Amino acid sequence: MGRAPCCDKANVKKGPWSPEEDAKLKSYIEKHGTGGNWIALPQKIGLKRCGKSCRLRWLNYLRPNIKHGGFSEEEDRIICSLYVSIGSRWSIIAAQLPGRTDNDIKNYWNTRLKKKLFGKQRKDQQQAITRRGNGLKQMQQMKRSSENNNTTTITHMGENNSAIFSLNQSHNNNILPYWPQQQHLPLASHYNNLPPSFGKPIENDLSKFGVQFMDQESVYSNNNGNEYGNFLPVIQGQSSNSNSQMVEVENYNMATYEDPRRVLCGLEFLYGDHQIMSGNNDQMGSLQVSSCLPNYEEILLQDLSTTTTTQEYEAKFDDLRILDNNAL
DNA sequence: AAGCTGAACAACCGCGCGTAG
DNA sequence: GCTACGCGCGGTTGTTCAGCT
């Protein structure tokens, strides 16, 4: 047996609100308040609307001091960092932005901000593949490589097309995913010990975009274990030199050379300066980013846990083929 | 000018949670 | 402790409109 409906669906109006309906609702609530019962409210006013619909209309549109559109850079930054911190808790995010509603922020994220952040990455990467020759061939080669031997190449494209780097790494008979836009950062060992209320925001949400993060324990844990207000994901490699990775950077400009954050491909602003370690470089066109890149075997294990089947690999491969064909 | 496509926004739906009885 | 109910939340769908072909 399903859940009982909150109202008589046959007798309620759906779809866009008319100015008359808006006026009725607004006027009543301004005079009498909601009365603590949204379900009963439409009947009192004489509106043929579901109580939930009234509530939504009031909260998202009619109540005073609501701002629509025109998100500032500062608001963008707040939304992004909170999203990375707590995931899609839109109501919490909205609480930090006066005048903004959770619905508004959610829509803004889904339609614009997400693309602003990650769409550019995909586009840049696609361009990089095309520019560097036959992308499909390259992907096929990567796939073969990942299936047949232990040496792996990841190609990654940076902001403003400036930082293309390849990472070569031997590993222990693990299959390396060849999906190029995945940017892998390790999850800290304590990641599974977050309070249940947090769930796994980062893993659940940003992993959709092929991004994985680790968390910096010192940032968000405290003595009583209850407050996680400063919880922030950070990019942090292993402290041991043995885990450092050499990254060969092709065609990167001085900004990239001087600022290893650029390898984060536009995501760097999410982290704040204090969370990014500095990188070293040598005279051979390589950039040592031991502080930014993870323990590679850990990455492989994570990938194996999330992308395990040949079918999934094939699906990704088809996707790449489509991208490649479109680019030609 | 017409049709198509995608972006932006509004609204709906279903579920989980808290709470009163 | 159980149940029913209302609220709030997040995901999804629907609608409108502008830009492009």
Rg measurement, Å: 24 Å
- Give the DSSP E fraction (strand runs of 2 or more residues): 5-15%
Quaternary state of this entry equals single chain
Q: What is the strand tally?
A: 7
Structural class: alpha+beta
**Helix run count:** 12
Largest sheet: 5 strands, antiparallel
Q: What best-fitting shape do the alpha-carbon axes yield? A: elongated
Question: Helix share of residues?
Answer: 40-55%
Q: Determine the N-to-C terminus distance.
A: 54 Å
Helix and strand run: HHHHHHHEEHEHEEHEEHH
Q: Biggest sheet: strands side by side, in what order?
A: 1-2-5-7-6
What is the averaged pLDDT score? 49
Low-confidence stretches: 120-328
Features:
7 strands, two-stranded antiparallel sheet, 328 residues, SANT/Myb, alpha+beta, five-stranded antiparallel β-sheet, disordered C terminus, transcription, DNA-binding, 8% strand
Task: Describe the fold and architecture.
- The chain is α+β, with helices and mostly antiparallel strands and 328 residues long.
- It is 42% helix and 8% strand.
- The protein is built from twelve helices and seven strands.
- It has helices spanning 19-32, 41-45, 51-62, 73-86, 90-95, 102-131, 135-148, 201-205, 217-220, 254-258, 296-306, 310-327, and strands spanning 151-156, 164-170, 214-215, 233-234, 246-250, 280-281, 286-288.
- A five-stranded antiparallel sheet has the order 1-2-5-7-6.
- The longest helix has 30 residues, at 102-131.
- Mean pLDDT is 49; it is low at 120-328.
- Residues 9-62, 63-117 form the HTH myb-type domain.
- Residues 120-142 are annotated as: Disordered.
- InterPro entries: Homeodomain-like_sf (IPR009057), Myb_dom (IPR017930), SANT/Myb (IPR001005).
- Pfam families: Myb_DNA-binding (PF00249).
